[in-house]
Amino acid sequence: MLPCAGTTQGRPMDIPSRFIIHESRYWVLNHRINSALPGYLMLSAKQMTNSLAALPTEAQAELGVLQARIQKTIEDHLQPKRLYIGRYGHDAGYSIHFHFIPVYAWVEALFWADERYRLLQNFGSIDSARPQTDGAELTLFVWREFCERPVPPLVQGPSVDHVIATLRNAFDFQQPGLQ
Predict the structure, then answer these.
(1) Which domains does the chain have, with CATH numbers?
(2) Contact 29, 15 (CB under 8 A)
(3) What is the pLDDT, as a whole number, of residue 116?
(4) d(CA 136, CA 168)
């Protein structure tokens, strides 16, 4: 599995500036560098740590407010069918970070159309006449198809660059050196 590529060796400041959407004193918000899925964001601590408890109290306090603001901004501007927010990484060398994964209706349709992912239904214990999926299955689909595949599925809707511009505008992003 490839690293998240939302941070570079635990130094969020090494993220290419074209991907950065917002920065605060303690956090960096960027579009996931290796994701072809528009709106897949990463929120990384600037301090190198894997523990929330190790962050300054101010960083901890800002985290919840910032996550809520990111969620609202994504929902208002990108209108995904679902939005998954989670912490997955635990590799050494990466600062604590959170994934914001928009699941658009067209992404879910691609998931259902791909027979390879029907095998996941064999692991469930819920009997249902109607196939069901959950966040884990759709997250796996997004990671494999939009982040790791050399040729990802075609995007329906705005491009990654357009989404970055839209979200920067929503966050009142100031490009360093232009302030």
Answers:
(1) 12-170 (3.30.428.10)
(2) no
(3) 87
(4) 28
